[in-house]
Amino acid sequence: MTVPRPSLDRTDPEGAVTAAAKRCSNAGRWGSDDVHGTLNFLTPQARVRAAALVRRGVTFSLAQTFDEHGPQRGWRRRTNPVHSMTDTGTDAERGVQGFPHGFGGADDVVSMPLQCSTQWDGLGHIFDHGTAYNGRRAGDVVTSAGDAVTGIETAAALIAGRGVLLDVGRVLGDGELPDGFAILPEHLDATAAAHGVTIEEGDIVCVRTGRLSRARREGWGEYAGGDSPGLSFLCADWLHDSRIAAIATDTWGFEVRPNEFDDSFQPLHQVVIPHIGLYIGEMWDFDALAEDCAADGAHAFWLTAVPIPFTGAVGAPVNPLAVK
After folding, report:
1. Tens digits of per-residue pLDDT, 100-153?
2. Under a CB-based contact definition with an 8 Å cutoff, are residues 188 and 228 in contact?
3. Over pLDDT 70: what percentage of the chain?
4. What CATH class does 13-74+113-323 carry?
């Protein structure tokens, strides 16, 4: 794929975002009432083709664990899950649950931010100058009651199809890329070529940087909210022109940190979510899958990654399942 390379002026994030938004906008592409964005590329026909990729029946969960030992450190009031038991075996043994004839059970509850571990960013998660996906006013989409238009539940039956692993960390580095490494469009293309795979319309692209592997070895540190390898802002056109359905990485924020502009915060998010309408997965775990792909040479697979349909949520946990 030949992708135009617009110049990048560190001092002008506003101009760069505006220009990329204009080039890459999908507003109105699927009608003024569309709520699915690039998931429209993931058609039933694409799913039928993807189902043929299952050969061995081997499965890989691409989710991190959801527990108090997770990656969060309080950035933006995000905490790790708090798991509490409301009924226990001890209660059952003591007969205090109120059930007849010795019946007993256990119940539990979890309190957590919806984006504290492996998750999807929904289309109501990011705005650009008060504009949400498909040209809507942000305040008409998300209020204190939640996202009434593009809530994560609108994707609950859609994100299943052909997954493609681009192990950039393995191809460009010694399994891991350093913090601040900006993955360019040509890096994505070179990695696909090295894997012998092509990116097709409707794909769910999985980009492994190795950042999660390092966090597990060295400790969480600044994994959630700090510096990281990730996609360059210059990937905006690649993400638009490739017609992929979604993209996920093993990092907390998808794009490179520090950002490539002075005085900016997640400028690539500012283009791809409200203008392209692209679903972004973050903090996915590709390590076991990557080892298998390297061993058998097959980097395309069936992937189901539907979010938990919390009504009105702008993001949601997911347990992505790759099947080869």
Report:
1. 999 999 999 999 888 999 999 999 999 999 999 999 999 999 999 999 999 999
2. no
3. 98
4. alpha beta
How is 133-187 classified by DSSP, letter by letter? GGGEEHHHHEETTEESSS-GGGGTTT-EEEEEEEEHHHHHSSS-PPTT-EE-HHH
pLDDT, tens digit (0-9, with 9 covering 90-100), for 180-203: 999 999 999 999 999 999 999 999
Q: Which residues contact 47 (CB under 8 A, 6 or more apart)?
A: 160, 161
Q: State pLDDT tens for residues 56-103.
A: 999 999 999 999 988 988 777 889 989 999 998 998 899 998 999 999
Burial 202-239 (b: 16+ CB within 10 A, else e): bbbbbbbbbbbbbbeeeeeebbbbbbbbbbbbbbbbbb
* Whether this model's pTM surpasses 0.85: yes
User: Side-chain half-sphere of 8: how many Cα atoms within 13 Å?
Assistant: 16
Q: Which of 214, 228, 221, 222 is nearest to 174 (CA)?
A: 214
Spell out the domain ranges in the chain: 13-74+113-323, 82-111
* Rounded distance between C-alpha atoms, residue 2 and residue 188, angstroms: 12
Distance CA 21, CA 34 (A): 18
